[in-house]
Amino acid sequence: MTIERVIVRNYRTLHDTDLTLGAGTNIVVGDNESGKSTLLEAINLALRCQLARRPAAYELHPFLFSTKAVTEFIDGHKSGKPKPPPEILIELYFRDEPELAELKGTMNSEMLDLPGICLKIKLDDNFKDEYREYVKSPSELNSIPIEYYEIEWLSFAGDPLTSKAIPVKSVLIDPSSISNMHAANRYVLEIVRDYLTKVQSVELALSYRKLRDEFQGDARISAINAELASKTGAVSDKTLSVAMDVTSRASWEAGVMPHLDDIPLTLVGKGEQNAVKVKLAMEASDTCDIFLMEEPENHLSHTNLNRLIGKIIAKSEGRQLIITTHSSFVLNKLGIDNTIMFDGRSGVRLKDLPETTCAYFKKLPGYDTLRMILAKRSILVEGPSDELVVQKAFYQVHKAMPLDKGVEVISVNSLAFKRFLDIARLLKIDVTVVTDNDGKEATKTAGYAEYVKSPNIKVCVGKDDQFQTLEPQLLHANGRATLNGLLGTKHADDASLLNYMKSNKTDVALKLFDSADVFVIPAYINDAIR
Fold it and tell me: How many CA atoms does the CB half-sphere of 466 hold within 13 Å?
């Protein structure tokens, strides 16, 4: 049971979104404020009618509506051209399967005969008169009258829904949003509650009640209550006493704290907390069809993140995973072909990448693919020394570092250049490759012929075969005297200086980077930093 399409209108940052999803893993990436988290929240809202793990009816407020919808509503009334009260619409279109026959119908905005769920936050017809009174004075309008709104939760067949009536089971895993100790404790215990069997839940509740009874029978508590009882009449005509809370809200979840190695969970490291929350949520959701997950990489080291991703892959096998991330490692490990570039309106998938490229990044997930995907423009270089020289050259030309201009300079093994260009070609990303000629400039250039057909891709190969790498290119462009001055050396001949530069690549690049003096930029690098 998987979601094939999501339509969202007027919900937070998602004013008009139409996104297609795959049956397995979907890695949603995009720039900050593109609406990735809001997308997960909207899907969860439609699936469970919940916000912040509470019934959505208790969490309605004007800021759920997109800023554009609110502005158009208010400006329309103030300009004498009133618009209907805005509505939030979230539609989930499922793959057509027999198990979802009861959700199937054409009651959706596209009028498609498919199984699905439609959630609307709309004006309650019972408050039409009050609404008309509210908008009578346009000059006083500054928000949406959410008090007159209701939630309509229907299947595409037009039938009202309840959480128990939906055959699709899902879970939203978002440990990063839990910032305080009480909320983190409650979040984990809610997952524990889901994980326990009914018998185990009953036994835990009985044990907790027994503990409360023992507290009440303790001799010291009895003495305290006797002392308080002696004050009857002084503070109240009724007898004052202390006791553990036995109301319905005082369930075991309120008084029990999860521990790791006998240390309260909220006092262990953030990385371990987040890993436990993710793993426990997935363990507790064996019956789930859909996992919604927000940035699992938070606070985790490279090794621990690798373990967690392995767990996610294993537990999500055969189910739909919709995950957001800012980590290239997560992106590559889960399969770069599962990536959806999301801009708040729609998404471009990388499923059409060559299989060899996908396999390459899965085996070597440390590459900064996401840096290139999200950058305004990227320059790919062969190593750290090239990266430093290109950064310095860029600064000489533009009087600003590349990142200040939205340009990423990324060090990439030359064998991976074409893998990165496969992504750039598919997504139409502005990418330039800076590479040595290795004594075969014509051959090197011809090797990229299929890529440079794309107007967004440029390959800059070192000129002249006798200057095979960066160091001889720098020496040829600047001369021995200039480089001796820049590097603080006194080499008497070119061969000696070149040998020094090749033997100390990174140190030489650092000296050039830190130098206040200007050096001549080799032509192929100058072409790249345009």
Answer: 3
